[in-house]
Amino acid sequence: MKRFLLILCLAVSYFGTAQNDFTNADAKELVDIFFDGFHKGDTLLMRSTMVGEVTLQTAYTDKEGVPHLNTGSIDKLLIGIANRPAEQKWDERLLDYKVSIDGNLAHVWTPYEFWVNENFSHCGANAFTMVKTEDGWKIVHLIDSRRRSSCKTD
Fold first, then answer.
1. 95 close to 108: Cβ distance less than 8 angstroms
2. How much is the CA Rg of the chain, to the nearest whole Å?
3. Phi/psi at 41 (5° precision)
4. SS3 assignment for the chain
5. Do 94 and 31 contact (CB within 8 A), yes or no?
6. Which pLDDT score, from 0 to 100, does residue 14 have?
7. Residue pair 50/43 in contact by the 8 Å Cβ criterion
8. Which pLDDT does position 145 carry in this prediction?
9. Cα separation of 27 and 132, whole Å?
10. For position 2, what pLDDT does the model report?
11. Which end of the chain is more exposed for a tag (fewer CB within 10 A), N or C?
12. β-pair type (136-146, 50-61)
């Protein structure tokens, strides 16, 4: 009987942890949900993918060639998306997904092109850092780069 209980406990433990594994597809899906909300203007859907306080940053080089790192507010981004005019279409086209996962930490790199009303605006890359929380996997940091040159559309 003890042997049966030990085997049962090991099986439950194995299958219980196997179901909690976060895969590359899961990480990609979290990013896709974020951008689904972004494109629809659904800030609640976007918010569902994030922890309460997300670090939001942008790395860019100004016209004089000086590099900058801007730290912004996720709340201001969400307000901007919620207040976007209905006739203005923002289309962030993700070109690839590079995923790395280690335990309760994941990172997704997504090169992109950004279009406004079918007109090319800029390109760059997004880097999402995700962690496993009590509420599931969530985005804790989002940094992007932005440039107008050396893009695929050039």
1. no
2. 19
3. 75, 25
4. CHHHHHHHHHHHHHHHHHCCCCCHHHHHHHHHHHHHHHHHCCHHHHHCCEEEEEEEEEEEECCCCCEEEEEECHHHHHHHHHCCCCCCCEEEEECCCEEEEECCEEEEEEEEEEEECCEEEEEEEEEEEEEEECCEEEEEEEEEEEECCCCCCC
5. yes
6. 47
7. no
8. 97
9. 11
10. 55
11. N
12. parallel
Contact predicate 59/67, CB 8 Å:
yes
- The residue type found at 61 is T
Which structural domains are found in the chain, ordered by start? 22-146 (3.10.450.50)
Closest C-alpha among 116, 151, 117, 140 to residue 34: 140
State the 10-residue block means of pLDDT for the chain, 154 residues long.
49 48 97 97 97 96 95 95 93 97 98 96 97 97 94 71
